[in-house]
Amino acid sequence: MLHIHLDTTTTAHKTLNRSNLNLSTFHEKHDTPATSPKEDISDKWREFHGSSDWQNLLDPLHPSLRREIVKYGEFAQATYDAFDFDPFSEYCGSCKYNRRKLFEKLGLTKNGYNVTKYVHAMSHIDLPQWLEKSHLVETWSKDSNWMGFVAVSDDQESRRIGRRDIVVSWRGTVAPSEWYDNMQRKLEPIGQGDARVEHGFLSIYTSKSCTTRYNKTSASEQVMAEIKKLVKFYENNGEQVSLTITGHSLGGALALINAYESAKNFPGLPISVVSFAAPRVGNIAFRDELYQMGVKTLRVTSKQDVVPRMPGFVLNESLQRFDDITGTLEWIYTHVGVELKLDVRSSPYLKKGLNLVGFHMLETYLHLVDGFHSSESGFRVEARRDVALVNKECDMLVDELRIPHSWYQSANKGLIQNHHGRWVKPVRDPEDVPSPTAVDSRAGGVLELEYV
Amino acid sequence: MLHIHLDTTTTAHKTLNRSNLNLSTFHEKHDTPATSPKEDISDKWREFHGSSDWQNLLDPLHPSLRREIVKYGEFAQATYDAFDFDPFSEYCGSCKYNRRKLFEKLGLTKNGYNVTKYVHAMSHIDLPQWLEKSHLVETWSKDSNWMGFVAVSDDQESRRIGRRDIVVSWRGTVAPSEWYDNMQRKLEPIGQGDARVEHGFLSIYTSKSCTTRYNKTSASEQVMAEIKKLVKFYENNGEQVSLTITGHSLGGALALINAYESAKNFPGLPISVVSFAAPRVGNIAFRDELYQMGVKTLRVTSKQDVVPRMPGFVLNESLQRFDDITGTLEWIYTHVGVELKLDVRSSPYLKKGLNLVGFHMLETYLHLVDGFHSSESGFRVEARRDVALVNKECDMLVDELRIPHSWYQSANKGLIQNHHGRWVKPVRDPEDVPSPTAVDSRAGGVLELEYV
Questions:
Q1: Across the interface, which of B33, B409, B411 has its CB nearest the CB of A420?
Q2: Cα distance between residue A322 and residue A194, in whole Å
Q3: Where does the record place the Fungal lipase-type domain (chains A, B) (predicted)?
């Protein structure tokens, strides 16, 4: 523990605030690596995984834990960055890349994990702005949405972090809006006791239909089967295994439900949740059962973001304000775990005006985690994560940085010029075309392209 | 004339309307050239250039004239496509490419012209939404905007069109809005007689200041000097020369003022204006002087676009409607020349709902010109221009075509990843960095990069 203590105090005085934001420093940073050197945490991994509820690690935040939080956050961000949102795409609602290419395409191979499985959920559920449907008649699937993935640490990363880490990353939704509160009205039982969780989340997690291509099994069944396979394989191999479940916003809610089910199915497996900007999802009995089963939850929130206060808040987007409409819901729906609370005002790079979407974006969170030293201090001078990422899908960076807002976009929205000079939608790379089965089980056993 | 007559009747029956829009035909078209074969018009060029006020060439529209109109329209479109609109760019308000690369970058080398000069105008003039200013302190110029270019037909094109054609293309503004009408209040004298034109246009055209880099001379002086140089050069070479001035929207207004001044300076030079969606610009005396000097104007308008009805209309953008506020202005400001009137409803590819911006966009006009056969008939089946271009900066194409709206955009708004993986603004290619002089006239005569 001495080592931990030393780590955090040495950086205590080097912080930035608005008044000392030096733009030339920002621009000089362009020529420095965007990540800090990795440290071996193999002898302390259980603490970083939450075995002691992250006691004495959060305020000030331990540098190695910060790195782990950002790592899981980047896995959650990947579910947005690779999602096909184009309603005119025949693959709308799928992942743009197959699982073997995902991390490479998003620059995440540095994290040392491999995706082993894609997860899909039914999209007929009435949750506007979360589940995308193509406007076209002929599509890869009329019923399903890509909801995330299961990944596992490679040998090198496993050595560094002291165990084989299985990650489940759940896609959330970008914009909090009025519909969210409308949905938050119905609790439904989960498990055998009194535990109850919000109906809409559970429905996404458990729905299936034999008439679909991608949801003959539910998201729950897909994930459980994959975890089971991986746990069995690595435990048979004599390895220590852990499970870490992550998600942003509504994806954080799914992460918690997923952790609950995992704890039921894999007693003894160290399970933790790292959620960002997640709303409350279940009742007190749900929380207590999670505690009893030893599930550890690190809930990253920000003072300015309203979603972690949901349900119980109505967000009026047209008026750009929110109101506390009911004190009752706050008692019915209960938060779980330990909170790491960020503050938009701590970063000299961020605009301070009300920006409900910007406050909620995962990239904003990751920036604030990167700059967080303690609740008492300003933004870390040593923060190395690329600040420009914050503006990928919103307008949060101060103008002086000259980073355009919402810059994450394809050239010409993906249209390309054919040999006649006409602008056309390209055909998707065959290996990225969704296909429900990796292996054709019929005669011949032809290997299909492994989208999932 | 017989040839002309034959050309137009052969296509009379092959037209499309909404009910027979066949999407598979549209998609089959992807495999056909986007341009029609060029025809030699060297023996009829004066008629196509307006010598007889385009009599008997407009309804039905002669195919060769259609091609010429589209050619000039593409030159006008180039002033939008290459303009740096980014307020965070240190080159905001300039052209993104130097004059030697412009047509190549925009796929316009097919038209057979070379840019000989860029034109800049002062940007301090109070015309919001037209003149762009960088938010930055250090910029290529605090005072000037790129306003267009002078180009000249190459040898091959000159042979085809029967003369050496000098083109001046003026940049306009994309969105018509309320400010436009506010501006249209003050007529100012031009020339020695009673001719008067709108103050704001004339101000852009004539402003200069010795303290600027790009406007030590006015746009007027820059263009006049270039035309003079080119006319002299080619006439000394024994060639027939013509001048064609084009522009869209407010650029069409500048084109007319530019034509007036050119006619004063180059008596005997065949001068015509091809304007798109241009408002009225001057009084009756201005029009009459243009007629007396032999300036020919082809004014391309559309039934649904309100800008050609300005001034005299107030556009209430928030209510998405326009009102005729004064009958008087209509008499004070007078249209010039011959009108080719298009109809959005003629194209089966276009949405029919009210879209004030979409109706006004130059690409919408070019699409309608391409599909125009006569005022009585539907859209030409043989139209070859790429329909997808219509949606470059608006949302006018019917959903069935699956072309995203406003798709003309750079990957990641021009940000690129440096070797550390950080997203940064790239340094502009040195040869595209604006530089006011092509040749350093001081000792040594070092050749500078030729942006202008």
A1: B33
A2: 31
A3: 167-313
| Minimum distance, in Å, between the CA of residue A277 and any CA atom of chain B | 25
The angle subtended at Cα A290 by Cα A285 and Cα A293, nearest 5°, is 120
**Shortest CA distance from A88: residue in chain B:** B402
Do the beta carbons of residue B68 and residue B42 sit within 8 Å?
no
> DSSP code of A125?
S
pLDDT of A436 above 60: yes
**Domains and their CATH numbers in chain A:** 2-387 (3.40.50.1820)
ipTM of the complex: 0.84
At B150, is the secondary structure helix, strand, or coil? strand
Backbone angles phi, psi at B418, to 5 degrees: -85, -175
Q: Residues, chain A, total?
A: 452
Among the partner-chain residues A30, A402, A408, the one whose CB lies closest to the CB of B88 is: A402
Dist CA A175 CA B66 (whole Å):
47
Task: Measure the CA–CA gap between A275 and A339, rounded to whole angstroms.
Answer: 10
Q: Which amino acid is at B71?
A: K
Token pair recorded at residue A333: 């729906």
Q: Which residues pair with A196 in a beta bridge?
A: A189
Q: Is the pLDDT of residue B258 over 70?
A: yes
Per the model's pLDDT, the better-predicted residue between A17 and A297 turns out to be A297
Q: What is the pLDDT of residue A136?
A: 66
pLDDT score of B436 more than 50: yes
Q: Could you read off the pLDDT of A328-358 as tens digits, one per residue?
A: 555 577 889 999 999 999 999 999 898 888 9
* Sign for the pseudo-dihedral over CA of A334, A336, A338, A341: negative
> How big is chain B, counted in residues?
452
Q: Taken in order A276, A282, A288, A294, is the CA torsion positive or negative?
A: negative
CA angle in degrees (0–180, nearest 5) for A252-A254-A256: 75
Tell me whether residue B442 is exposed, middle or buried, using C-beta atoms within 10 angstroms of its C-beta: 0 to 12, 13 to 18, 19 or more.
exposed
In chain A, which residue's Cα lies nearest the Cα of B418?
Answer: A30
**Does residue A360 have an active-site annotation?**
yes
- To the nearest whole number, what is the mean pLDDT of chain B? 84
Rounded Cα distance between A342 and A303, Å, is: 6
Please choose, from the candidates A31, A115, A44, the residue with its C-alpha nearest in 3D space to the C-alpha of residue A78. A115
Catalytic residue among B120, B248, B335, B360: B360
Q: What residues 73-102 of chain B have any CB closer than 8 A to a CB of chain A?
A: 86, 88
**Angle subtended by helix axes B250-265 and B284-292, to nearest 10:** 50
Question: Which helix (H) or strand (E) covers residue A9, if one does?
Answer: helix A2-10
Q: What residues have CB less than 8 Å from B325, skipping those under 6 apart?
A: B181, B312, B313, B314
Mean pLDDT along residues B353-357: 88
Token code pair at residue A382: 């040593």
Which residue in B32, B107, B413 is closest to A404 by CB distance?
B413
Q: Looking at residues B23-43, what average pLDDT do you find?
A: 80
Q: What distance in Å separates the CA atoms of residue A433 and residue A446, rounded to the nearest whole number?
A: 17
**How many whole angstroms separate alpha carbon A66 and alpha carbon A273?**
15
Ranges of beta strands (E only) in B269-371 are 271-276, 296-302, 313-316, 321-324, 338-342
Q: Could B412 and A408 be called an inter-chain contact, meaning their C-beta atoms sit closer than 8 Å?
A: yes
- Per-residue pLDDT at B174 exceeds 70: no
Closest Cβ–Cβ partner in A107, A399, A409 for B135: A399
> What is the rounded distance in angstroms from the CA atom of residue B97 to the CA atom of residue B80?
12
Q: What CA–CA distance (Å, rounded) separates B178 from B184?
A: 11
Residue A40 is among the residues annotated as catalytic for this protein: no
**Who contacts A113 (Cβ-Cβ below 8 Å, separation ≥6)?**
A75, A103, A151, A152, A153, A154, A157, A165, A167
Q: Which residues of A touch B363 (CB under 8 A)?
A: none
Distance from CA of B276 to the nearest CA of A (A): 23
* Two tokens, residue A169: 């990353």
A402 at interface of B, judged by CB pairs closer than 8 A: yes
Asked if the Cβ–Cβ distance from A386 to B414 is below 8 Å, we say no
Q: Are A173 and A129 in contact (CB under 8 A)?
A: yes
